[in-house]
Design goal:
The chain has 255 residues and is α/β, with parallel strands linked by helices. It folds into two domains: 124 residues, Type I PLP-dependent aspartate aminotransferase-like (Major domain) (Aspartate Aminotransferase, domain 2), CATH 3.40.640; 99 residues, Alpha-Beta Complex (Aspartate Aminotransferase, domain 1), CATH 3.90.1150.10. The protein is 40% helix and 14% strand. Helix 6 crosses helix 7. The N and C termini lie far apart (51 Å). The structure holds pyridoxal-5'-phosphate (PLP). Pyridoxal-5'-phosphate (PLP) binds next to loops.
Length: 255
């Protein structure tokens, strides 16, 4: 079983305690994928929400290269039973034997490659450089920016938030209120809005589809993202929707 904490599309959180209990009852191996959202567990106020039930997992990972300011690639991988990996991957030809084999973790025995890059070093530098307080401050700023953006969208009659804003991602669409459009026309409108925003060269948003709805995604996760970028995004959003407004009219099938 693979449970996801923070799905790629909308940072949805699977109900890990319930999934974990079922896995325990049926002796199913449980892997927990928190590749993106796992970084939020650095915040005490988010830890319970993100990691509830994690004690039931057999393996867990998150990617510092996503939201923890570490250059690609770097994944932190936690295993409950390292012996399972060692039994699977360990090979010990004569020329690899050393006096220290019993005293250290030879990570070549925990996975497929023998030669590996020293990825932990760059993560160590990040942790030393920012410090835990520095990392937490940036994450809290990102969460606050996402809430601020969500607040602006909620206060505006022509935008709709399409998924809970539980982290630093905001999933939304433009829904000009006065004229109801078909789903297809509405999706097309939002597709054009995304293209116009990104063509500005000033912001870069991505998209997904949630329940058939073309969805714009704004994420506040860059190391130096700040309030001024949020203001810029908001201004662009108002300008581009205004420019596209004439298109927000259903053309009749006969036209
Ligand atoms: C990004 C992401 C992945 C992919 O991670 P890689 O380390 O690039 O393979 C997997 N799961 C989730 C939830 C992700 O956000």
């Amino acid at each position: 079983m693979v449970a996801t904490l923070g799905t790629t599309s909308s940072t949805a959180i699977d109900p890990l305690p319930a999934i974990g209990q079922i896995c325990a009852a049926f002796q199913v191996f449980l892997h927990v994928d928190a590749a993106y959202a796992g970084t939020a567990a650095l915040l005490p106020e988010k830890r319970t929400e993100i990691l509830a039930g994690i004690e039931l997992a057999d393996t867990y990972l998150f990617n510092p290269h996503k939201w923890m300011f570490t250059n690609f690639d770097c994944t932190a991988y936690f295993v409950k039973d390292p012996q399972a990996l060692r039994r699977t991957f360990e090979i010990l030809p004569e020329y690899l034997k050393t006096e220290r084999d019993r005293e250290v973790n030879n990570y070549r025995d925990w996975g497929i490659p023998l030669g590996r890059r020293f990825r932990a070093l760059k993560l160590w530098f990040v942790i030393r450089d920012f410090g835990i307080a520095g990392l937490q401050a940036r994450l809290r700023q990102h969460l606050a920016l996402a809430q601020d953006f969500a607040e602006k969208l909620r206060a505006h009659p022509d935008f709709e938030i399409l998924a809970p804003v539980n982290l630093n991602l905001v999933c939304f669409c433009w829904r000009p209120g006065a004229r109801p459009l078909s789903q297809e026309a509405h999706n097309d409108l939002n597709r054009q809005l995304l293209a116009a925003l990104n063509a500005s060269g000033q912001v870069y948003l991505t998209h997904t589809v949630l329940r058939g709805q073309y969805t714009l995604r704004a994420v506040f996760g860059n190391t130096y993202v700040s309030e001024k970028h949020l203001e810029l995004l908001w201004a662009l959003l108002l300008a581009k929707t205004q420019a596209l407004a004439p298109l927000a009219v259903e053309t009749s099938p006969s036209a």
